[in-house]
Amino acid sequence: MKKKFFLIITYILIFFNSNLFSNEDDNILKVGLLAPLSGEYKDLGNSLLYSLQLALDEIGDKNVFIIPRDSGYGNKEKLNNAVKEIKSQGANIIIGPINNEDFEEVKKFNDLIFISPSNKNPEFQNNIISIGISFESQILALKKFIKEQKKSKTVILFPKNQYEDFIQRKLDKLDLKNYKIFKYSSDPKILTGEIEVLTNYAQRKKNLELRKKIYEDKEDEQSKRELEKLEQKYTLGNVNFDSVIIIDFGNSLKSVLTSLVFTDVDQEKVLITTLNQWFDESIFYENTVKSLYYPSVNYKEFKKYKNNYYKMFNNYPSEITILAYDAMGLIYYAWKKKGKINSVNDFTFKSKIKGKIGTFTFENKKTIQDLNIYRIKNKKFIKF
């Protein structure tokens, strides 16, 4: 298997390099790739390389060439050398870096353009355009969805951890109106008590016990029926919100969902949403919420991309690689439309751009994706 893997990598590198030197015509589009092709994250780097091979196959233009270079991960010297090598080969546009922490380094190359799969900041930054699924894109998609569902009392929940200040700054900048913020502990033992406070669980539990006492000593049939109905309940009374946005993922997200169910939040009345999801099927088996909604990339196209990738390379890609795939398509579109690409300003299209992951807009030098809303129900991802 290792031999086969090595042969595939060798083939791609030879293919790229032979294409590179085959023609120096001005009608050639040369695109650099910064990827960790060695070290701890080399699997990710190779996956990014494969994704661009798929993009080249789909574009089918013999005048488009990729110049891949190993930029390492968190290695400034290797990153700088990789950029210089790509530049020396005649490319002025580069896919990468993948790490937002490397942005300050590549800003120094102000005569080059970088298209990064990072999702940290949707605003154009000097010579860098990020096309990752940004926080802003997801929140705006949820805001629109919640409004369409005629919900007006939304609570945004997120944990007190290393991302807390980042999330708060993002929310402040979006200037959301009539949204309440609730921060919870990352410790599951403390979390449950905090969700009980949010949902007024103790009072709703008490309301039920008081109501049951009214009917307990009565013998008439109507009272017995009322008592029987109350016995089926865990609490009595509504919570003071009709929708939630949970900014979390993984086991921490599952803990919040479990706590909402434990505190008897009526899922017929309260819309439960989240973000940061890439169709992770593990949530099917640990999620006790009947319906969970979230914004994401186009599921149908994402599955098609994964299947095509598997057919060609006998392996499944990392999620981030579809962003590199779309970056290649975006660059090609700009090149064909404008004839050449000189700066990030050549990506300020007035119209929307359709990619594999969804539809992009680049108004006011900001990348925003029009994301689809998906519903997790009965162990399926359903486009809403």
Attribute tags:
single chain; alpha/beta; 384 residues; disordered N terminus; four-stranded parallel β-sheet; 2 domains
Number of strands: 15
CATH C-level class of the largest domain is Alpha Beta
Structural class: alpha/beta
Largest sheet: 5 strands, parallel
Tally of individual domains: 2
State the share of residues found in helices, binned by percent: 40-55%
Lateral arrangement of strands in the main beta sheet: 2-1-3-4-5
User: Could you tell me how far the N terminus lies from the C terminus, measured between alpha carbons in angstroms?
Assistant: 41 Å
Overall pLDDT score: 87
Strand content: 15-25%
The dominant shape is: elongated
CATH architecture annotation name of the largest domain: 3-Layer(aba) Sandwich
Number of helices: 13
3D architecture notes:
- The chain is α/β, with parallel strands linked by helices and 384 residues long.
- It has two domains: 197 residues, Response regulator (Rossmann fold), CATH 3.40.50.2300; 123 residues, Response regulator (Rossmann fold, 3-Layer(aba) Sandwich), CATH 3.40.50.
- It has 13 helices and 15 strands.
- A hairpin with a 2-residue loop joins strand 14 and strand 15.
- The radius of gyration is 25 Å and the shape is elongated.
